[in-house]
Amino acid sequence: MIFKVFAKEELRSFFDTLASSNKVVGPVGIGKDRHGDTLFAFEDVDRFGDLRLDYTTTRLPAKRFFLPFRESMASFSLEKGDWKKDISYNIDRPHIFFGLHPCDINALNKLDKVLLGSAYPMPYYAVKRKNMFIIGIDCTPQPYCFCRSMGSDTALHGFDMFLTDLGDRYFVEILSDSAYNLLKNIRTSDPVEGDHVHYMKVVSEKTRKFVTRVDTTDLTKILDMEFQSDVWKQWGDRCLGCGTCANVCPTCYCYNVDESVDISLQRATKDKMLYSCTVIDFAQVAGGHNFRPERHSRLKYRYYHKHRGFVEAYEESLCVGCGRCGESCLAGITVPEVIASVRGEEV
Amino acid sequence: MDSGRQQSRTYLGVPLFRPRVGFFELSSCEGCQLQLLNNEATLLDFLSLVEVVNFREAMKERSEDYEIAFVEGSVTREDEIERLRKIRENAGILVAFGSCACFGGVNQLKNRFSLDWVKNEVYGNSPIKTDFVRPLEAVVKVDLKIFGCPVKKEEVEKIITHIALGQEVVHHKYPVCMECKANENVCLFDIGEPCLGPVTRGGCDSWCPTNRAGCWGCRGPAEDANLEQMEKIMKENGFSPDTILDRIECFGGFSVYAEKLRKDLGDSR
Amino acid sequence: MENRLAFNDVVDPKHHRKNDLGFFEYTYKAEITSIHRLTGMENLYRIQIVNPEDRKSFTFQPGQFLMLELPGIGEAPFSISSSPSRHGDVELCIRKAGNLTNFLARVPRGAKVGIRGPFGTSFPMEKMYGQNLFLIAGGLGLAPLRSAISYVQENRSHFNNVDIIYGTKEPSQLLFTYQYDLWTADDITLSITVDKPDPSWKGEVGLITGILERIFSERDDSFFKNTYAIVCGPPVMFKFVCNMLTQKDIPMEKMFVSLERRMHCGMGKCCRCNVGSTYTCLKGPVFDYWTVMNLKEAI
Lengths: 347, 269, 299
Hints:
Chain A starts with a strand and ends in a 5-residue tail after the last helix. Chain A is an alpha/beta fold. Helix content of chain A is 31%, strand content 22%. Chain A has helices at 10-21, 102-115, 123-129, 177-182, 193-208, 219-225, 230-238, 244-247, 295-314, 324-328, 335-342; strands spanning 2-7, 23-32, 38-44, 70-79, 82-87, 95-100, 132-137, 161-165, 169-174, 255-261, 267-274. In chain A, helix 6 runs antiparallel to helix 9 and helix 7 (230-238) packs across helix 9. Chain A has a 7-stranded mixed beta sheet with strand order 1-9-8-7-6-2-3, sandwiched between helices. Chain B has 2 domains: 6-165, Rossmann fold (3-Layer(aba) Sandwich); 176-268, no CATH class. In chain B, the strands form 2 sheets. A 5-stranded parallel beta sheet of chain B has the order 4-3-5-6-7, with helices on both faces. In chain B, strands 1-2 form a two-stranded antiparallel ribbon. The longest helix of chain B is centred in the C-terminal third of the chain and has 14 residues, at 255-268. Chain C is an alpha/beta fold. Helix content of chain C is 21%, strand content 27%. Chain C has 8 helices and 13 strands. Chain C has helices at 52-57, 99-104, 142-154, 180-185, 208-218, 235-247, 280-283, 289-293, and strands spanning 28-37, 42-49, 65-70, 74-79, 89-95, 112-119, 132-138, 162-168, 189-194, 204-205, 227-232, 255-258, 286-288. In chain C, a hairpin with a 3-residue loop joins strand 3 and strand 4 (74-79). Chain C is globular. The chains are: A alpha/beta, B alpha/beta, C alpha/beta. At the A-C interface, helix 1, strand 4, strand 5, helix 3 and helix 4 of A face strand 4 and helix 2 of C.
């Protein structure tokens, strides 16, 4: 791995270099919540001044750019009883992601496993993912963050370069050739021993700031053992079945497909919409039978998929501990509390 | 749809229906019908799928020979009951068109007060016949409901296309939150606004929340809506029971729950 | 210096075999070449891939499914009901149950549809060579089983004793009645039962488990040592049947069932078919019963 350091003010010219000929996406402030705290979102950014690299967590992940909430999978043109199917992957240029936190980078790495690394890679995701240039940036743990418990507090791969704030300088890890070349646009230098010490100090300070933990020991077995547990019913009573947890989740990829005929009857479309397993008809089949008619069984399935099924398949869970689902859940259902309750711990 | 007449066009070899349709209104603002007329871009396509034989808002000719009746508005007078029964007799399929027809709509708010008070408050000394407000299905059998105040024209077009193709019309079962998140809106609770999105049937593409106005539940409850939890959430977010009640009872879709809530509130007062 | 990042076009539409990105949404255009009414609710559709080369290369195994698409109407998974020796010229036994299938019931012969696939696991027919076979179906379960039956007929010498046991609620619901004589002509024992007989019914009455009891009483215990079973039908039925087979010491790993779930992709992406946390489309639809026993929510 190649490391460099550069003075903070260089970042602006680095941004300008990239933004002058590429589309850049990054964290920006989009208003204040009712407590006066800034709400953040990933948006297209033209000016360095709009970037908020000090952001906490965006309400929604950057999903729109790699797993759009709604996307056309194909369109049909119909004529004289015959038809033609046109497929579009809905992207035509690379995107630069300026300032993704480790949790969101790890989310992409997890999605890669299921959406790229199988006998059936998914082109809608693949084309967008292969056109992401990612600049990671270190973060400050928030009270709801439990990424450390999920092993997602640091990103080992899945980015082009990663920035760590050392006060007056950025420490940068370079993983890709294109990042290395682009960095030639600004003044960088090789880190000296003092930079290494400083970096390690920053990392250990960050680690100490985590306050929320999730015990994942033997979790796959415990989820099996407690499949019939009453705690699921208690959480199910609270669940709104609104699907928000999945929509704000950086790793939820389940979807629905809807085909419709245009009113002209000469065109038809096949559209994909990200769906949520907590929504009532998620497992409903033609004829009306619903395999998960109760809210608690759907909520349980969500945990089962993320913390058991994915672990079984890939030896890691499908949760990065970003805490977005808990922060967005109006009913206050959070992953640390649900898992603790299933483990029989007092919440 | 047995009564529909086939037209020469086919889709994947299946002959299409081109039903004779009529549009009617009971007590309403006629805004739902207006939504349809607002559709210049697709109006011709629309008219090629159906034969409109009765549409007071758009044409002079009237015919009582129709297969599908779209009825807007709620039932508030004796003569409307008669008209509705007649429409029901004529129509093979009766569609409750918009929230007034489906649930009573905004009109049903007056059911909370005494009729005499309402008459006096609204019309003063002018004599007026008006009764308790009821949705269509309190009087006749309804075959299909199209929710919304007003209805969403894209949804109506989709439904008309479904009818022409002979397909069953299936409504979204999920709540508004699904579409609101897909539109990447800031949750209104985050900025201190009440919203019924978590319990209201989706399909409106989160029309109001996208415009930063909390949902008032015009499409009625989503399937499996968790109203008990919704009430708790409103309270936790600092909204008074009256704020909740105002929203829940606004369009009549949540009437059963609203009644319970009103009773609980009355008891505690 | 060039600071514009180049677009990385990773999909080559010319490549659309499994493992290619172009496979995901690749649809074979196919023609409905015949429609045969089996009952008031089920039709048998013969569907032929239009391109002759694609037709030849579309190979599948008994128990696998495909996605059938009517443009603009919808897409859904269906078990293939015909012999695997016929490649991309398949038969699907389809019940009118929802939006897609109700529309399909009105589509005329000659209509063009789309198919993707084949997907999923299959009945391991070659593993069963030299063994006795119980082929057991309840109701629409005969649809996937019929492909295995065709395979057995075409490779009859590879199998020892073969029993087909089939039950429906009413005689009018029996599928493929015109083929029963062909099956028995191939030295296959066929037992049929209905729950609710009509006055003209002369066959057996009762549940499939009743037939199994009769057959069990006619066979030595040694018979079951070399026996495999394929059980297709609703979960409540295969649960009882498999439990009975277990009593004869047939290992659960030698019993195969087929699960039905909602699916949109068939390739382990949409998650709609998950049982517990297992993808029915990838690890199934054919599972051995031991695996099913270990799946949450399966039965």
